[in-house]
Design a protein that fits this description.
Elements lengths: L22 H24 L3 H31 L2 H11 L2 H32 L4 H29 L3 H24 L10 H17 L11 H35 L2 H38 L1 H37 L7 H9 L2 H16 L3 H53 L9 H18 L4 H19 L4 H8 L5
Helix pairs in contact: 1-6, 1-9, 2-4, 2-5, 2-6, 2-8, 2-9, 3-4, 3-5, 3-9, 4-5, 5-7, 6-7, 8-13, 9-10, 9-11, 9-12, 9-13, 10-11, 10-12, 10-14, 10-15, 11-13, 12-13, 14-15
């Protein structure tokens, strides 16, 4: 184990090229599973804070809190410009000699863009006529925006070398620190504004940790060189546009709610959106962990790429279907625990959005597939169309249907985007067109699980368990579980 490794979570990189080895898939599954476990553990820790925070702030201030975090998320996506995925790809396929120069330019560019984005975010709050607490909260959140940008940029070195165990540690640490300080603020009966400072502390700790892990692998000194940035941007500007548009569409609905709906309805939607947003982290976390493998396969081995994408698709159907079942059936319990009786109207919105979760898993898979294949212009067209659709549907449905209308918009966008991605892939790379053989089998198993869970007059948690077991039995009976995933999880690492 490397010095300072946390026991069995250590990710020791052999002298050989892990991305070119047969062990890469197994390491992804084990490391990806570890990240999901850490993410889930962090969510359990969050259950100790989020219900306290929502009850403490109430629907209006909670809506304000989520509005600012969503605005900062959009700004982060715009300023990130795909540099994280670009960095993973370049560090996965480049040689050691180019790593330090590349990372220096990447760091400098990310810092400059973050500062520019922070100015734009604050300007937007004034233009939108937001209350002073939202303007001040946005200013505080911009500090965390800068710290998170640097931390995320350095973190690509861990992803590129499949050091996923350390990423799992960082995921959990961030969740734990956030939960702990949220609870302290609630106990101190703090007003809304101090809650925006928690992200600054969390980002600072994460930055210190990732710096200690990668300082021997990449340069930590940002390069503020226009010539270096020009070279980087000339290679990545189309990639950045494609990636950015694929991120911001999901948050546009929250901003639209803050402008088109009542403050109370915005609070109701914000709770359901927050629950969904946490859950949606799972598919993106998993597929991002597989990105180095996809990038290397796209360069060296089309057959391996086809195999990997098919397995991700099959697994995404199964896991996405199961998570969708859990959200739809468990929504009343989740809202009651996290928000309390004041947030009861959030249940309907959460159930509507839960129906689109399986599409979110597919969106994550196919977006990374298109990025891997450098189909940037196609991504720009599709993602740009979805952004326009998000605005149009929000204007059409939110004023009349409020939180429920926003939920319909959110779920619809995921379904449309998943379908558009796979159509583009099938047209440009017919050899990578996914086999749909497992779709009806997973659909039948999911329908059986939902049916059983819906008719049982029991507590939602028991209904979720019954529905999940029914779905699992259906998957096994229909042969819909990807056998390769199970075999890889049981395989011991080589050496």
């Amino acid at each position: 184990m490397s010095a300072g490794s946390p026991g069995e979570l250590a990710e020791v990189i052999p002298d050989g090229d892990i991305l070119a080895s047969r062990e890469a898939g197994g390491r992804f599954l084990r490391g990806g599973g570890m990240r999901v476990l850490a993410y889930g553990s962090g969510l359990l820790v969050g259950l100790a804070s989020t219900p306290l925070v929502t009850r403490h702030l109430g629907p209006v201030d909670w809506g304000h809190f989520i509005t600012v975090t969503s605005l900062i998320f959009i700004v982060a996506a715009l300023t990130e410009g795909g540099v994280g995925n670009l960095g993973v790809r370049e560090l996965s396929i480049g040689d050691d000699a180019s790593r330090r120069s590349f990372m220096s330019n990447l760091l400098g560019l990310r810092i400059a863009l973050s500062l520019l984005g922070a100015a734009g975010a604050i300007a937007f709050t004034f233009a939108a006529g937001y209350p002073s607490v939202l303007v001040e909260g946005t200013a505080l959140a911009c500090v965390s925006l800068l710290l998170q940008g640097v931390q995320a940029t350095l973190g690509v070195a861990l992803t590129a070398r499949l050091r996923l165990g350390w990423l799992a540690v960082m995921d959990f640490t961030a969740q734990f620190i956030t939960a702990a300080f949220m609870v302290l603020l609630v106990l101190a009966k703090a007003p809304l504004l101090p809650f925006y400072t928690v992200a600054i502390l969390t980002a600072g700790v994460s930055l210190v940790l990732v710096t200690s892990l990668v300082h021997n692998e990449v340069s930590l000194r940002p390069a503020f060189s226009l010539s270096g940035w020009r070279t980087l941007m000339s290679d990545s500007i189309v990639y950045a546009a494609a990636t950015t548009l694929g991120i911001v569409y999901f948050r546009i609905v929250v901003i639209a709610m803050s402008l088109l709906a009542s403050r109370t309805q915005t609070g109701y939607f914000s709770l359901s959106f927050r629950i969904l947003d946490i859950i949606n982290g799972i598919p993106w976390l998993l597929v991002a962990s597989a990105f180095p493998i996809l990038a290397r396969a796209a360069r060296d081995d089309d057959e391996r790429l086809r195999y990997a994408l098919q397995r991700l698709f099959d697994g995404g159907l199964v896991v996405g279907g199961f998570v969708s079942l859990c959200v739809i059936i468990g929504a009343p319990f989740a809202v009651k625990v996290i928000g309390g009786a004041k947030f009861d109207p959030s249940v309907e919105a959460l159930q509507i959005m839960g129906a689109g979760i399986i599409a979110t898993f597919l969106v994550a898979i196919w977006s990374f597939a298109l990025l891997t294949l450098r189909l940037y212009r196609e991504l720009i067209l599709v993602n740009g169309g979805v952004v326009a659709l998000a605005v149009a549907l929000s204007v059409l449905l939110i004023p009349s249907h409020q939180a429920s209308g926003a939920a319909v918009v959110t779920a619809s966008l995921e379904v449309v985007l998943a379908g558009a991605y796979v159509l583009v892939l099938a047209r440009r790379r017919p050899d990578l067109r996914p086999s749909l053989r497992g779709v009806p089998r997973v659909g039948l198993a999911l329908a059986a699980g939902l049916g059983v869970a819906a008719i049982l007059p029991v507590h939602p948690l028991i209904a979720v368990a019954a529905g999940g077991l029914t779905m699992l039995a259906g998957l096994l009976a229909l042969g819909a579980l990807p056998a390769e995933f199970l075999q890889a999880l049981r395989r011991r690492p080589a050496g």
